[in-house]
Amino acid sequence: MGLRAAFAAAASAAFNAFGDIVDNATYYGGSANDTYDPATGAVTDGTSGRSIKIILTYFKRHELDSMDVLATDTKGLVRQSDLTVTPRVDDTITIGSDTYRVKYFRMDPAHALWTFVLRKA
Fold first, then answer.
1. pTM of the model
2. Number of folded domains in the chain?
């Protein structure tokens, strides 16, 4: 097993171990569903909902100081295997009755987890 596969397995194990803090959510957006019309040059946003599992947490003080993150923003962790599209800023994640807007995202170097900066919509 390579290092990347080991990290992906560890991320899955962590999500399984933290079962009571993992939320079911719906991700709306991502670039995989966009369609391009070559006749007009228009790109149509093909937004559809995808079921994902997410861990919500808060940012540490040094993270607030080093990025354009508000103290009220939430950090979201999603397994790469749960989200098969490339996220975009302003995509939304709905958990129960709460909706969050994606303000920033990044993939970890092992391609195991997406980290999101989420702001309540």
1. 0.79
2. 1
